[in-house]
């Protein structure tokens, strides 16, 4: 199931995916999908608080690589696609999967944000489902999980407001990758789901009901984040991360526009992180 396999729309996409950037520094208020998390799986929020305290990425990189190598050696947890009560086809555990297990890579085709935006503008993007945006505000990547030789059963992960897996961005062996990781023990036949953490600036879309069926369901599929020009909140994030952008891309463009204003701040953040990654690579 699980090994990383990405195709690239062009050389720029490959170059960007092979760079320590982008790493997103997550602002919880933005919708927080996949990204750097702490040991408990909580999303890191403020770079200026947590990031200065520890060599976080180096530690994480070593840990994830160890987990991946174990799966390569012993086999990845088995999952299968079946009809879901939540939506269409889903991903189901074909064996018990313990909390913290790496289940596989979310693969697909990688675009630069600019190339993707152009496809959208021309109406030539092949899908707007199964997307991930990996975006540091200046070096955006779109990962289309629908296409590419490496796509696997995990592309059908459905949303839940009470998820049992998360998407973990990792920088392993010279490239970015997205790992699916169990948040808790998952029993055989249980559907895997993650929190898409969708957000929109469209008030009508914000009314879309969520049908995940979780007891803790938020009721709405999208969080409503109207983007205001001149809103100081934007300065903190520089990370418009969209996670699995299920069926809407309209908000992506404005997010990108917003985050690109934060380039200078991002650069300083990323310089620090790049050093940490290089350090970690050297010790693997
Ligand atoms: Zn829900």
* Helical/strand content category: alpha/beta
Q: What is the level 1 CATH name of the domain at 11-196?
A: Mainly Beta
Q: What's the tally of helices?
A: 7
How would you spell out the order of helices and strands? Answer: EHHHEEEEHEEEEEEEEHHH
The CATH superfamily of the domain at 11-196 bears the name SET domain
CATH architecture of the domain at 11-196: Beta Complex
Quote the average pLDDT: 71
Strand order of the largest sheet: 1-5-7-6
Number of E strands: 13
Rg (CA only): 18 Å
Overall morphology: globular
Bound molecules: zinc ion
* Alpha-carbon distance between the two ends: 24 Å
Share of helical residues: 25-40%
Q: Quick one: biggest sheet?
A: 4 strands, mixed
CATH topology of the domain at 11-196: Beta-clip-like
What amount of the residues lies in strands? 15-25%
Keywords: Chromosome, Metal-binding, Methyltransferase, S-adenosyl-L-methionine, Transferase, Zinc
Main location: nucleus
Pfam family, one: SET
Domain SET: 77-197
Description:
Residues 264-284 have a biased composition (Basic and acidic residues). It is a single chain. Helix content is 27%, strand content 20%. With 284 residues, the chain is α/β, with parallel strands linked by helices. The protein has a domain at 11-196: Beta Complex (Beta-clip-like), CATH 2.170.270. The strands form four sheets. Strands 1-5-7-6 form a four-stranded mixed sheet. Strands 2-3-11-8 form a four-stranded mixed sheet, with no helix packed on it. Helix 3 crosses helix 7. It is globular and about 45 Å long. The relative contact order is 0.21. Residues 25-55 and 229-284 have low confidence and may be disordered. The protein binds zinc ion. Zinc ion binds at residues 161, 210, 212, 214, 217-218.
């Amino acid at each position: 199931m699980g090994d990383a396999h990405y195709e690239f729309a062009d050389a720029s996409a490959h170059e960007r995916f092979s760079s320590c950037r982008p790493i997103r520094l997550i602002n919880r208020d933005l919708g927080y999908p996949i990204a750097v998390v702490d040991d408990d799986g909580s999303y890191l929020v403020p770079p200026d608080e947590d990031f200065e305290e520890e060599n976080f990425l180096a530690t994480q990189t070593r840990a994830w690589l160890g987990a991946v190598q174990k799966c390569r050696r012993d086999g990845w947890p088995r999952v299968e696609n079946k009809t879901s009560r939540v939506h269409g086809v889903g991903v189901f555990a074909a064996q018990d999967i313990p909390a913290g297990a790496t289940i596989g890579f979310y693969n697909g085709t990688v675009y630069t944000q600019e190339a993707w935006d152009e496809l959208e503008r021309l109406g030539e993007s092949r899908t707007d489902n199964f997307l991930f945006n990996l975006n540091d505000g200046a070096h955006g990547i779109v990962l289309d999980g629908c296409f590419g030789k490496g796509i696997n059963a995990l592309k059908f992960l459905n949303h839940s407001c009470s998820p049992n897996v998360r998407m973990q961005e990792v920088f392993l062996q010279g490239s970015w990758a997205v790992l699916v990781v169990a948040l808790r023990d998952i029993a055989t036949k249980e559907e895997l789901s993650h929190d898409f953490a969708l957000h929109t600036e469209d008030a009508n879309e914000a009314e879309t009901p969520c049908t995940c069926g979780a007891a803790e369901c938020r009721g709405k599929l999208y969080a409503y984040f109207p983007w205001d020009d001149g809103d100081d909140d934007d300065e903190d994030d520089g990370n418009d991360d969209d996670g699995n952008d299920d069926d809407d891309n309209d908000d992506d463009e404005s997010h990108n526009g917003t985050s690109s204003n934060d380039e200078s701040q991002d650069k300083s953040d990323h310089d620090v992180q790049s050093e940490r990654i290089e350090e970690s690579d050297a010790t693997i």
